[in-house]
Amino acid sequence: MRRRLLVVGLGLVFVATYAAAQVGSQSGADKRRSGYRDMGEALQKMQDDDTANPGMLFVQLGSQLWAKPAGVANKSCADCHGADAASMKGVATRYPAIPAGSDRPLDLEGRINLCRTQHQSADPLPPENLDLLALAAFVAHQSRGLPIAPPADPRLEAFRQQGEEIYRRRQGQLNLSCAICHDDNAGKKLAGIVIPEAHPTGYPIYRLEWQALGSLKRRLRNCMVGIRAEAWPLDAPEYTALELYLMERAKGLKLETPAVRP
Amino acid sequence: MRSLVALALALMAGPAAAQQVDPQIVGDSIPRSLTGQPGDATRGRAIVANRSVGLCLLCHSGPIAEERFQGDLAPSLAGAGSRWSEGQLRLRIVDGSRLNADTIMPAYYRTQGLHRVARNFEGRTILTAVQVEDVVAYLVTLRD
Q1: Given A175, A180, A229, which is nearest B118 (Cβ)?
Q2: What is the DSSP string of B87-114?
Q3: Residue from the list A190, A224, A225 with its beta carbon closest to the beta carbon of B58
Q4: What is the per-residue pLDDT across B37-88, written as a single tens digit (0 to 9) for each?
Q5: How far is Cα A250 from Cα A33, in angstroms, rounded to an integer?
Q6: What is the DSSP letter of A32?
Q7: What is residue A257's DSSP assignment?
Q8: Which residues are A70's β-sheet partners?
């Protein structure tokens, strides 16, 4: 990583940041920053104020869907998990995870779809489907303020490593890696935009540029398109691998769902 | 990133086709024009200023006042023509990794050694030979 740095002095700063990222919140000098801290005050206020945060509309929609029976089984999420809006507290802090009876990790949307197919006998919802995003926002919102806590499951390690490899590998016509921007140059300006550290703290997010709620996958695809790399299809396992790595890297940072981003 | 996305879309329509010219590297420069012709500095300035064509201002700043959003990942382009000869500038645009293997500056006239290039850019250089010459002609005018 050091070799890629532009300026040695800055290099030291970034190495320190990265080291902090590795030890997580145990370190007294944790310098990691959520993207929240890199956006203007107006957007921070919008995110903080539930009556102004557009993401909250989707959380409300998710709350309705939670209680609505679906599928051949005609069961609602609430029928199994309870109507209480806190029954999913903490769940989003530990995804992606490997569900019982499987050997592959699922992200939160994947887990919701598994409940649809297994317990509701309903069709899985397609990626970026509004109902799916709303349910994910409703579930993840219940972990707002809780630290990201990836599970200790050793089976996840290989997937996480795959994610880190993707993160560090240069790709696309512009021949850049995630690490070049988000480790080595985070905090600097790319065409006037502050490059965030890429912590997945707020997903699904309401992004002003999209005028919509969107998943982490959608965000990752935006970065890939930006460097003119061939994005994987939305259901590809590579996104889950990247998410596993990003969540480990963000371990201990607090969830903000639904976050607002420019 | 917004601009990167916009430019990616913009360029889908008319991306630069790979050229057959083989740039001759001498020391730390490419002394001869890729097209055999001098470039046009006015067009070069427009390419550098345009974040969906040159992409330069994503990373660099430069003496282009009308472009408010400039980058600070790389040295300012101001004075580049005083620091480097025309041939040195040409190699830095064509393939800066020949000088610094770890550079983050994209090679503007190279198609080899890339990974997972989006299908619509596969086999194409970021700029055409003509565009590289225009950019070089502009950079030469940037004197302190």
Answers
A1: A229
A2: HHHHHHHHHGGGT-TT--SPPTT--SS-
A3: A190
A4: 999 999 999 999 999 999 999 999 999 999 999 999 999 999 999 999 999 9
A5: 9
A6: -
A7: S
A8: A75
Specify whether the CB–CB gap between B136 and B44 falls below 8 A. yes
Give strand pairing partners of A147: A254
CA distance A5 to A13: 11
A229/B116 touch (CB, cutoff 8 Å), yes or no: yes
Most B CBs within 10 Å, among A190, A223, A230, to test the B interface: A190
The DSSP call for residue B30 is -
Indicate if A223 belongs to the active site.
Answer: yes
Distances (CA, A) of B73 to A132, A189, A195, B60: 38, 7, 10, 6
Q: Are A209 and A262 in contact (CB under 8 A)?
A: yes
Q: Compute the distance between CA of residue A142 and CA of residue A138 in angstroms, rounded to an integer.
A: 7
Is there a contact between A157 and A255 (Cβ–Cβ < 8 Å)?
no
* Look-up of token digits 């600070």: B72
Q: Which residue of B has its CA nearest to A179?
A: B104
Residues in chain B: 144
Neighbours of A217 (CB within 10 A): 25
Residue A148 contacts by C-beta under 8 Å, 6 or more apart in sequence?
A93, A201, A247, A250, A251, A252, A253, A254, A255
Class at the top of the CATH hierarchy for domain B2-141: mainly alpha
Which three-class secondary structure state does DSSP give residue B81?
helix
Q: Which domains does chain A have, with CATH numbers?
A: 36-262 (1.10.760.10)
Q: Is A209 on the interface with B (CB under 8 A)?
A: yes
Report pLDDT digits (tens) over A85-143: 789 999 999 999 999 999 999 999 999 999 999 999 999 999 999 999 999 999 999 99
Residue with tokens 């050997």, as numbered in its chain: A103
Pairing state of beta strands A260-261 and A205-207? parallel
